[in-house]
Amino acid sequence: MTTPRMHSRSIVVAICLGLVVSACGSDEASDQPPSASDVVRAPAPSPTDDSGSVIGTGNLGGTVVDPQPYPIDGIDIAESFPEQLMVRFTSGDPNCTAATATATASGDTVLVSLAVGITEDALAKSCVADEFEQVVSIGLDEGLDGRQVVAADG
Questions:
Q1: Cβ atoms of residues 113 and 69 within 8 Å
Q2: Whole-angstrom Cα distance, residue 151 to residue 73?
Q3: Is the bond leading into 82 cis (omega within 30 degrees of zero)?
Q4: CA–CA separation, 137 and 75 (whole Å)
Q5: 3-state secondary structure (DSSP) of residue 7
Q6: Among candidates 77, 74, 91, which has minimal Cα distance to 138?
Q7: Residue 23: which of 88, 70, 116, 91 has the closest Cα?
Q8: First to last CA, the chain
Q9: Alpha-carbon distances of 111 from 71, 72, 78, 103, 105, rounded to whole Å
Q10: Cα gap 55→53, rounded to integer Å
Q11: What is the C-alpha to C-alpha distance for residues 8 and 12, in angstroms, rounded to an integer?
Q12: Cα–Cα dist 77/66, whole Å
């Protein structure tokens, strides 16, 4: 037999679980602008196969826990020498989200991939259950030299 008190507890537990799950991201967009001050540079790893050479990486939020391929909303090219790529994506709370973007050159294209997860301390934080537009900046080790920039499937 279910009492009103047991029913209320079930609702509270369901709401709490929903908040925890949605804090890691959902599919709704927000009008909140990205914060460029959150971008942290990371050294480029060496290429591990013959599919191209890594010409730059960027990191947002530090170490990425459980990184997963993630869709890219857009890529902007910052005109500098060498160029920088600004990788835009929509994800959960910037205080709890970590991401790494990599630019790999192969032939006449530069493939940009994005992996998103949570920060190392996300589970100890209070994360906002909303969507935020975020940006990872990739400093390139060499110029684009006319190569086409394409986003990897996320």
A1: yes
A2: 9
A3: yes
A4: 10
A5: helix
A6: 77
A7: 91
A8: 47
A9: 13, 12, 16, 6, 6
A10: 6
A11: 6
A12: 28
Which has the closest alpha carbon to 96: 112, 118, 74, 78? Answer: 118
Say which DSSP state 59 is in. E
Neighbouring residues of 135: CB distance < 8 A, sequence distance ≥ 6: 34, 36, 39, 60, 86, 87, 88, 89
Distances (CA, A) of 94 to 1, 12, 109, 110, 151: 44, 26, 30, 27, 22
Q: Strands 109-118, 148-151: parallel, antiparallel or unpaired by DSSP? A: parallel
Question: Which structure tokens are listed for 8?
Answer: 């209320």
Closest CA to 52 of 113, 103, 1, 125: 103
State which H helix or E strand residue 149 sits in.
strand 148-151
For the chain, the residue count is 154
DSSP track, 76-138: EEE-SSS-EEEEEEEES-TTTEEEEEEEEEETTEEEEEEEEEE-TTGGGS---SS-EEEEEEE
Question: Mean pLDDT for each consecutive 10-residue tract of the chain (154 residues)?
Answer: 45 41 42 32 38 93 96 92 91 96 96 97 92 96 92 87
